[in-house]
Structures are given as structure tokens and as C-alpha cells.
Design brief:
The complex is a heterodimer of chains A (317) and B (210). With 317 residues, chain A is of the alpha/beta class. Helix content of chain A is 43%, strand content 13%. Chain B has helices at residues 3-13, 16-28, 33-53, 59-83, 103-114, 128-137, 154-165, 183-189, 198-208; strands at 89-96, 117-126, 142-146, 173-177, 193-194. The chains are: A alpha/beta (317), B alpha/beta (210).
Chain lengths: 317, 210
């Protein structure tokens, strides 16, 4: 973790706003050497942008084709470099929940979608929602099994934990939580609290960073209560006014800038977008980081505009 | 309390078995299948849609209500056929080429069926050729195109262009939706409608059949 981000999370007056940029494998596949040449112009964000034509950094998650994970979920991807998604769910009936075996691996692997999304991946969205509606033994057993696995995986990483641990789980849809905030607090909030408490018990100084897509502003304070020290929320799904109201000076965020604007915005619009966010959320003491994610549909000139916006506004006072 | 009111209440609570029993009872009492469908089942699902839109209920409640609706319609089906009751209309629905996401599409489908619209679901990763073929082969008046990604939303435009090229654009209303889609994007690609949520999509689709 870089020092600026640490200062931002702990409200310790970072000299500039911390900036991070994620580049999806599909963007490398599309732009290749041209993208590397662009990144060389921004050494402040990319100190060492190495690109190997034959070795684009890509986990299994981004490979085209099918793979099966430790829970038996079947992932499919129709385009190399894009994100896979689960299309085969191991739980076909309520009986399958009770006979579901917790994977045996204890390697600390907790991929994106480790708790809430895992429930959906195991059952399929619609069946999972039905189990949530019923709030019977099915959903409680399923949650308990996933939680048990996750707690063991967290225990496995404890010896290697640095100053911060990152988690990712998309809790929101575009307009809110699929299960609603109250049901989330009843059934899911305690899971995150239990998992993160393992880390905090091990070392109270360890910071917990959590990425979540979707509209989640209603439970951001709950996430903080669960032990999350910095949330990585999306700009568009949550709305800037909600983020200001809920987070500014209270919950540190690493703001996921508007990925849905990046492919289509003009240069002034993209730079203004960064400026608008910073002007609304900046505090000298911290609590704010800026994150931009580039996918293959973003033209290089738009990436440059976002990067120029980040460079301009990270010095904002 | 009348049987129709009871059906409505049970459906909104997602009590599928109660809905089945009450629909049987209503038929036995001599109510017409059309009346039961429109005044109880569809009326209840419209109420569910409104509450969902206002965040008074959430996806789990919508799904169990839709399950109860399906249970009621299954009981009603022979009587609907006998009475010659037709669906409000037909809609084609799919997630566009390159995109495997189906949660939003399925929610919209559920809402459309809830207001009595028959859906022809083409699935995910669907290109213009399949949509054109489905429009040709059916008497669908609405085409709903879903996309979750900025990388795939432009495929909505491609499908509209394919419909134009096939001479079918004017025979259908094209509705678009999905997380990255906006009204201005919908306008720019020549869609007839964009809605922000599944319940609104059902309302707009229904308006095209009235």
C-alpha cells in the first residue's frame, strides 16, 4: 500500500490525493504497445509500465472458455480479456444446499465475490433470491457454509498480512441492494463483521479495504461498523450527493470514477468529471482516493483525458 | 373479503399454494378466467411492480410474487384457452451480443409477464440476426434489449440498425436498458424507450399495446 493511500484512510493529511488506475486485460489486448506508450507519459501513476506482447497479464478469470472453481461453479467467458461469469450453478435444489461440501483448500484464496456473490453463484440469482425471501434453513445453511469457508481462508492469510487487506464483493445493483438494506443487515452484515473481526483481532492496526460495485450507499455505514476502513464505491451507481452525505469526513472512500462515462465522454467532460468529484469530496485531512478503471472500449485519447484530470486534481487544495 | 381480493393479497405475499387454491375456488364459484387473470393476478403484480419501483419491496419479494403468479396462471390456463383469452401482446427480449449477463433481462421479463405480456426470450449473447428472425416469425410488437457493459451496449445500436436493414424497424418498438444505458444514449441510437428499472419497463411496454 502506498503511503498516500494510508494517510488518506487514516485522515492523516496526504500531500496529494492518492490515485490508482486499473487496466483490464481486454484494454491491453486492444491497444497493446500504444497503451504502453501512453502510460509512459504518466510515470507518476505508472512507474514501470512493462508490456510484453506475448505475456499480457491475465488471470484465469479473464481467459476465454470455461473453468470450474473450488465450489463447483462453472465460469464462462466468450471473449479473451473480459471478465468471466458463472453460468453453471452447483446447487440445483434445496437438498443440494444441505449436502454441499465446503471446499477443502486452505490457500487463502478469496476471489472477488467471496461472500454475497458466492451465494448467487452457487444457486443462481433467482433461486438465491427465493431463498432470501423465505429466510428459512436453506439460506441460513448456505450462508453458514460460505462463511465457514471464508473464515478459514482468512485465517490462512493472517501470517502474511501487511498493513492492508483487500476484499471485493459486488453488493449492489444499479438502483440499490437486491435484497434490501434491512435483510442485508439481518443476514449478511454479521458475516462481514465476523470475517473482518478475525483480521482486526489478529492485528487491530491492519486496514481493511473493500471494493463493491453497485448502489450501496445505504449500507456504507454498516460496512464501516463491520470493520471496513476504506470502501471502493462506484460514482454513478451511488450518486455524488449520496457519497458526499454518507462518506465525506466519515467513511474513507477510494472513488471508482465513472467507468460508464469513460468510453463516451469528451476530453472536457472527462476532466470535469474528475474535478467535480474532487471538489465535492475533498478534505485536507484525507478520506478520499481516486480510482480509474480502463476497459477495451475506452479510446486512448479518453484515457489520456482521465489521466490528465487525475494529475490536475490530485493536487487540489 | 372476495376471492379476487384474497388472490391479490396472497400473490403479493408470494404464497403460491394459497394462490393456486384460491384460483381454483374462484373458477368453481363461476368467475371467468379473464376476470381472475386481470382483476386479481395482473392487478396484484402491477401493485408489486409499483412497490418495487418505490423500494418498498425488493427482488426477493418480486420473485416469490412472480412464482405465485405463475402458479395461479398454470391453474387458470385451461380456462383461459377455453375462453379464448389472449395475452396483452408479445415482446421479444434478450441480452445483446457479447454480453452474458441475464439478471436484468430476467427481471424485466418477469415484470412484463406480470402485466400479461407474453415474452419470447432469446437468451444472452444475442445478435441482430436472431432478433430479426424472431420479429419476422412472431407478431411481437416490442423488442427489449439489455446490456450490462459499456463494451456491449453499442450492440443495442447494431440490432436497431439490423432491424432497419431488414425493413422491420417500424413494425416494433425497441426498448433498451441496463446499467450503463442512459436516456441520451437511447435517443442517440434511435431506441423508442429507455427505462431505469424493470417495473417501469413493464409500464412502458404495456402502453405500446393499448
Amino acid at each position: 500500500m502506498n503511503e498516500l493511500l494510508y494517510k488518506a484512510i487514516t485522515y492523516n493529511y496526504p500531500e496529494t490525493i492518492p490515485v490508482s488506475v486499473g487496466i483490464q486485460p481486454a484494454a491491453w489486448i486492444r491497444h497493446r504497445g500504444e497503451l504502453q506508450r501512453l502510460l509512459l507519459d504518466y510515470p507518476q501513476f505508472f512507474p514501470n509500465p512493462t508490456f510484453d506482447e506475448n505475456k499480457i497479464p491475465m488471470s484465469e478469470q479473464y481467459r476465454a472458455g470455461t473453468h470450474i472453481d473450488e465450489w463447483g461453479c462453472v465460469w464462462e467467458n466468450i471473449e479473451e480479456g473480459m471478465d468471466s461469469m458463472v453460468k453453471g450453478h452447483p446447487i440445483k435444489s434445496a437438498d443440494d444446499i444441505f449436502s454441499l461440501e465446503i471446499p477443502k483448500n486452505r490457500d487463502g484464496r478469496l476471489p472477488h465475490g467471496f461472500m454475497y456473490l458466492r451465494l448467487l453463484d452457487l444457486c443462481g440469482f433467482e433461486d438465491a433470491m427465493i431463498y432470501f425471501a423465505e429466510e428459512g434453513e436453506e439460506i441460513k445453511t448456505l450462508i453458514s457454509k460460505v462463511l465457514e469457508y471464508n473464515c478459514r481462508q482468512i485465517e490462512a492469510i493472517l501470517p502474511n498480512i501487511d498493513r492492508m487487506v483487500s476484499f471485493g464483493d459486488d453488493l449492489g445493483m444499479q438502483n440499490g441492494l437486491a435484497v434490501g438494506p434491512e435483510r442485508w443487515r439481518r443476514l449478511l452484515g454479521p458475516c462481514y463483521a465476523k470475517m473482518y473481526s478475525i483480521i482486526k483481532r489478529h492485528n487491530p492496526e491492519t486496514l481493511i479495504y473493500m471494493h463493491t460495485d453497485g448502489c450501496i450507499w445505504e449500507i456504507m455505514n454498516d460496512l464501516k461498523q463491520c470493520g471496513v476502513d476504506m470502501i471502493n464505491p462506484q460514482f454513478r451507481a451511488n450518486g455524488l450527493s449520496n457519497l458526499v452525505r454518507v462518506c465525506k469526513g466519515k467513511i474513507p472512500i477510494n472513488l471508482d470514477l465513472d467507468r460508464q462515462l469513460f468510453p463516451f465522454g469528451t476530453r472536457p467532460e472527462l476532466m470535469d468529471h474528475v474535478g467535480e468529484c474532487v471538489e465535492a469530496l475533498y478534505l485536507p485531512e484525507g478520506g478520499l482516493g481516486l480510482y480509474a478503471e480502463f476497459n477495451r472500449d475506452i479510446p486512448l485519447e479518453n484515457m489520456a483525458a482521465v489521466l490528465d484530470g487525475l494529475e490536475k486534481y490530485r493536487h487540489y487544495k | 373479503m372476495s376471492t379476487l381480493v384474497q388472490i391479490n393479497e396472497m400473490l403479493q405475499k408470494g404464497r403460491a399454494k394459497n394462490v393456486e387454491e384460491l384460483v381454483r375456488q374462484a373458477l368453481a364459484d363461476g368467475l371467468s378466467a379473464k376476470e381472475i387473470l386481470n382483476d386479481a393476478l395482473i392487478a396484484a403484480m402491477m401493485e408489486v411492480g409499483s412497490k418495487f419501483k418505490e423500494n418498498k419491496i425488493y427482488v426477493p419479494e418480486v420473485l416469490i410474487a412472480a412464482r405465485a403468479m405463475n402458479a395461479g396462471v398454470a391453474v387458470l390456463k385451461p380456462a383461459l384457452t377455453k375462453e379464448g383469452v389472449q395475452p396483452v401482446g408479445k415482446a421479444i427480449i434478450c441480452t445483446v451480443k457479447g454480453d452474458l449477463h441475464d439478471i436484468g433481462k430476467n427481471l424485466v421479463k418477469m415484470m412484463l409477464e406480470g402485466v400479461g405480456i407474453e415474452c419470447i426470450d432469446l437468451g444472452v449473447d444475442v445478435g441482430g440476426d436472431k432478433v430479426v428472425e424472431a420479429v419476422r416469425e412472431s407478431d411481437a410488437k416490442v423488442v427489449c434489449l439489455s446490456a450490462l457493459l459499456t463494451t456491449t451496449m453499442t450492440a443495442q445500436k447494431d440490432i436497431i440498425e439490423d432491424l432497419k436493414a431488414a425493413g422491420l424497424r417500424d413494425s416494433v418498438k425497441v426498448m433498451v436498458g441496463g446499467a450503463p444505458v442512459t436516456q441520451s444514449f437511447a435517443d442517440s441510437i434511435g431506441a423508442d424507450a429507455y427505462t431505469v428499472d424493470a417495473a417501469s419497463a413493464a409500464e412502458v411496454a404495456l402502453s405500446y399495446f393499448r
